[in-house]
């Protein structure tokens, strides 16, 4: 599935719940989305706390999906072409000099 299709499905989900409405109790502002992204990213760490191996891969997959969805939505509502931003960052990193280990 293409990134744009995932974005469309995410927007349809959010729209169906009324979260884009002006009077929504869950306003989808860039600030709120960035906070939600950070919170969900922190929840990934719970799957590694006090252990080396992941015991609950399904739970981890759900948290990773939450992070991806918030990232996709944040990029979309702020007008960032996430696919192009990723390609640009990969190209920039390719040119960087990394310290030797």
Q: Domains counted in the coordinates: how many?
A: 1
Query: In this structure, how is the largest beta sheet organized?
Result: none
Q: Helicity range of the residues?
A: 55-70%
Q: How far is it from the N-terminal to the C-terminal residue, by CA?
A: 37 Å
**Low-confidence spans: pLDDT under 50, at least 5 residues?**
none
Determine the number of helices (DSSP H or I, runs of at least 4 residues): 4
Portion of residues in beta strands equals under 5%
Work out the number of β strands: 0
- Radius of gyration, Cα only, in angstroms? 16 Å
Reported CATH architecture: Orthogonal Bundle
Write the layout of secondary structure elements.
Blueprint: H1 3-16, H2 30-45, H3 57-77, H4 82-95
Features:
mainly alpha; globular; 0% strand; Helix Hairpins; 101 residues
Could you please describe the fold and organization of this structure?
With 101 residues, this protein is mainly alpha-helical. The protein has one domain (3-95): Helix Hairpins (Orthogonal Bundle), CATH 1.10.287. 64% of the residues lie in helices and 0% in strands. The chain starts with a helix and ends in a 6-residue tail after the last helix.
Give a summary of the structure in a few sentences:
This protein has 101 residues and is mostly helical. The protein is built from 4 helices and no strands.
